Amino acid sequence: MRWPWQSRSSKDQFIVSWSSGTFAYVRALANADGLFEIRQLGVERQGEDSLEDFIRRLQSLGFKGLVASVMLRPEQYQLLQIDTPPVPPDELRSAARFQIRDMVNVHIDDITMDVMQVGDGQQKGPMHLFVVAAKNEVVREVMTLAEAMNWTVPVIDIQETAQRNLHSALAKRDGHLERADAALVITDERQAVLTISANEELFFSRRLDLPQGFLSMAWGEGRDAQADAPSDAFTPVGEYVPDYAVAGVSHGADYSGAATATGTADEERVQRFIVEVQRSLDLWDRTWSSMPLAAIRVYAGERSGALASWLSRELGQTVSAIDVAEQFTGLEAAPMADQLLCLPLLGVLLRTKNRKL
Q1: Same domain for 63 and 80?
Q2: Verdict on whether the full-model pTM lies above 0.90
Q3: Do both 153 and 166 map to the same domain?
Q4: Which residue from 87, 96, 170, 336 puts its CA 20 to 30 A from 114's CA?
């Protein structure tokens, strides 16, 4: 999103997120090759501290008076998809605001919003917009911290576009920037964020709810037993009907069901997650049949490799772990728990200057 504050010159870039008492940050320096040297990366939690005490803690880390780009976490906004209103470009925001008035979970006057085109505009057919809608109170909370820290805030970004930047950089490195590239990113125990991009533009986004304790589960165990079970031992989930209007609302499966006859409840829940991932990829194939996926990448911290191997077996497609160590030197020195939460922030570092979203 574009905001009215102007950035001042600085060689370092500072990216932060602030949500539910958790502050994540990355401070990096770009070199002449377009790569980044990570100077600072970490996570601070407010805990029982008052806001004033927490601010003093952040100031002690040397963060006062910086230029700070902010990334909102998925729980801080809705990402909606609508038909592009038939109005001039300078009227898109106001037309989109009217169009989403019944789609947001608060009064339309209580949101801050921005819009961007779905895809790169080269495809035939109806055009669509992504609409980012954040509650004003969320933006105020972020800006209250920024004012207390004496930050200049040139941009407020979102995780989906940060992911787009990351896997676009990897696609460029691999020589298929113009082809569709998918990224499934897990940074907490609640949701996975799936994005598909091509030509450095976001085409598709979906949030998938995770079974409780997903990151600590033994994925794939029990599959041999299930393979030998009668064909009616697993109760399939119903047909997936996509809701194109709400791109950012989770369409996750219902993980409350009982265990199957031959497996545990955990096994059923992870298999339902697989079903939702497969349905998302099938939806992409049907909707964008002219743009087959060139790569599927995943991130789950230290379990990224295990997740990639498991999904490769389950989906019958090659899935690779997201590895950005070449682009961000010094990243490996940070604790893995901090890397897990901070990975999307790295995508904001790759944001094209003056780009909208």
Answers
A1: no
A2: no
A3: no
A4: 170
Say how many domains are in the chain.
3
State the DSSP H helix or E strand holding residue 53, giving kind and residue range, or none if neither.
helix 51-60
What letter represents residue 244's amino acid? Y
Q: Assess whether 244 and 306 both reside in one domain.
A: yes
Residue 254 makes CB contacts below 8 A (sequence gap 6+) with 237, 272
For the segment 196-210, the average pLDDT, to the nearest whole number, is 96
pLDDT digit string (tens) for 243-295? Answer: 434 444 444 444 334 334 334 677 888 888 999 999 999 999 999 999 999 99
| CA dihedral of residues 265, 268, 274, 275 (deg, nearest 10) | -130
DSSP label at residue 67: B
Give per-residue pLDDT as tens, 125-169.
789 999 999 999 999 999 999 999 999 999 999 999 999 999 999
Q: Strand 68-72 relative to strand 12-19: parallel, antiparallel, unpaired?
A: parallel
Query: What whole-number percentage of the chain has pLDDT above 70?
Result: 83
- Cα distances from 79 to residues 130, 255, 289, 300, 355, in angstroms, run 7, 23, 24, 22, 18
* Residue 41 and residue 121 in one domain: no
| 255 and 143 part of one domain | no
Handedness of CA 303, 306, 308, 310 (dihedral sign): negative
